Amino acid sequence: MKLTHNDRAVLRGDSGAAARMAMTILVRMAEVYGAGELLDISAAHIDSTIYIGEANLEFAERLASQGARVAVPTTLNVSGLDEEHWKEWPVPEDWAEKALRHMKAYERMGCIPTWTCAPYQTEMKPHFGQQIAWGESNAIVYANSVIGARTERYPDLLDICCAITGRAPAVGLHLTENRAGDLLVHLHDIPAALQKADAFYPVLGHWVGKAAQNRIPVIEGVSLKPSEDQLKALGAGAASSGATALFHMVGVTPEAPTLEAAFQGREPSEIITVGLDDLRTARRELSTAEGESLDMVVVGCPHLSFSEFKDLAHLIEGKHRHPKVAFLVTTNRGVRERAQGAGYLSALESFGGKVAVDTCILAAPMLPPAIRTIMTNSAKYAYYAPGMVRKKVIYGSLEDCVNSALRGSVTMDDDLWHT
Amino acid sequence: MAYMIQGKPVLAGQAEGEVLFSREPISFWGGYDCQTGEIIDRRHPLSGSNAGGKVLALPSARGSSSTPAVLLEALRIGTAPAAILTSGTDPFFALASIVADEMYAITMPVVALAPGDFDKLRTGDLARIGVDGRIDIQRP
Question: Is residue A290 part of a domain?
Fold first, then answer.
């Protein structure tokens, strides 16, 4: 592999022990990827921020104590802990102590404490064509697809090595020729009313991820321009059920003004048609619970944006949840502050809802055992919760979630899916 | 039945064990309990199996970018597979093994197989992996 004079100096230890360890791991990984060289990045997003165990804490603390500093502006993904509210939940004290140490280690390296899985909805949003090294599957797919920034799927541990060195392997989605679509997904006869609904996009994402696996899907046949939040939900669903790191949507995403552009003039390797029946099946797959019993509603996976908060506030204004059903919003400190200013937070509080900031209720051990069944409007949460937090899940629209919380049991409006 | 396949060592090392095989990719985050080695993705065909000490054969990692972090912790605790065989090169599994090597001098071989060779594997096979990526398979 071709290394620059500076790469080699860092590898020798000229920039200190931490940079040497980061560069060693990066170069070994670049060889695994089959890279001919490294390239410069100008931003990073670190997913290794959740305390998962001793090994990851030790890794972060070793880097920090050896003086590691990030070389490019670097945002941080969700942490293991809501620093302000964790005591309201049954989070074990020793776990919290380690999660805090983990957070501090990354802050010591000079990262920006954004603590969010939706960094693309912060001031640190990258721009079209920018070379970045991002972790967190939903953030990766959003940055590549919706913004047209360029990142590979940077895993935990490697993301921080890229941030410290400011370098990344010159492979994969960093390079134009690898960003062409593979698989054509043609939407057939999907009613416009359904396409307009937020609840359509997580389901489509879940279906597309499964169909595409690690190929780049090109979605054709959308009759309107989905919102940023709808594309965010689509990407998060696809990156959970498959390995989707980039999708194109013809006429919508920046590298797909036309079908030809999305495929860079090549032929699709496969064409799949998706109809309403397929999506009904995908929607059913997202739920593991049957019956009407419900203990909690969770929205904000990925982290609730300001505009999603606004939609929620309108739905719950002047209402109060049923005492049997808890209602939780997950977001970051930045959005919470703006929501407070706009009055959305007080609407949520009057409704009887809570906010957890900066963390992820898939990864933080905060849900009490009495919570058995959770309803969510997120395909990602629905996908992971049964395994990760061992809860039964029901996927529904945001309206379904709110109505169920009001009634105290699951209620769904299926009309849109049966036209 | 006994036969040999030649893989590409992504992370070279020796190991042997019983094969746990699936054609479904997996995310270790949400899919692997690093305290026990159990596969806990309830939508995965290997759900409920314990992969600790086994030769885990999966096409690739899927979904979450936290797979290496979970696998690194499993390597530290001792609940990780003895080796991982993939269909083509998978960087996520390789990364955990590289960091475990750098931090703890623990080697978990990761070997990339041609898709045709990967498909021949079955759960219950006994696999012995050599540093050169040679894999001797015995089917009881």
Answer: no
Among candidates A21, A32, A362 on the partner chain, residue whose Cβ is nearest the Cβ of B94: A32
- Here the ipTM equals 0.93
Sequence letter at residue B95 = L
Q: What is the pLDDT of residue A86?
A: 87
Nearest chain A Cα distance for residue B16, angstroms: 23
- The answer to whether the CB of B87 falls within 8 A of the CB of B50 is no
* High-pLDDT (> 90) share of chain A, %: 89
Distance to chain A for B140, nearest Cα, Å: 32
Q: What pLDDT is attached to residue A365?
A: 78
Query: Helix A228-241 and helix A379-388: axis angle, to 10°?
Result: 40
Q: Which residues of A touch B70 (CB under 8 A)?
A: 52-53
Identify the pLDDT of residue A52: 86
Query: Count of domains in chain A?
Result: 3
Of the candidates B40, B63, B69, the beta carbon closest to that of A52 is on B69
- Interface contacts (A, B; CB < 8 Å): 122
Mean pLDDT, chain A, as a whole number? 95
How far apart are the C-alpha atoms of A57 and A379, rounded to whole Å? 29
Does residue B84 sit in helix, strand or coil? Answer: strand
Which residue is listed with tokens 């489509």?
Answer: A204
The residues of B that are catalytic are: 64
Best of A388, A389, A390 to substitute, by most chain B Cβ atoms within 10 angstroms, is A388
Q: Residue A58's domain spans which residues? A: 5-176
Assess whether A265 and A316 both reside in one domain: no
Report the distance separating Cα B85 and Cα B129, nearest Å. 10
**Same domain as A148, residue A52:** yes
Substitution target in B60, B64, B106, B107 with the highest count of A β-carbons within 10 Å is B64
Where does residue A401 rank: exposed (0-12), middle (13-18), buried (19+ CB within 10 A)?
A: buried
Torsion sign across C-alpha atoms A118, A162, A40, A36 = negative
Record: fold of B7-130: Glucose Oxidase; domain 1 (3.50.30)
Among residues A137, A123, A138, which one has the least CA distance to residue A306? A123
Question: How far is the C-alpha of A413 from the C-alpha of A393, rounded, in Å?
Answer: 17
Find residue B18's DSSP bridge partners.
B126
Q: Which residue's structure tokens are 């709808």? A: A230
* DSSP code of residue A253: S
Chain A residue numbers touching B10 (CB-CB < 8 A): 32
Residues 52-71 of B with CB under 8 A from A: 60-70
Biggest CA-to-CA distance, chain B: 39
Give CA–CA dist A410/A35, Å, rounded. Answer: 51
In a domain, A291, yes or no: no
Q: Are residues A209 and A246 in the same domain?
A: yes
Q: Which of A52, A31, A110, A99 is nearest to A76 (CA)?
A: A110
Select from A135, A214, A362 the Cβ nearest to the Cβ of B65: A135
Please count the residues of chain B.
Answer: 140
A273 and A318 fall within a common domain: no
B chain contacts of residue A362, beta-carbon cutoff 8 Å: 30
% of chain A surpassing 70 pLDDT: 100
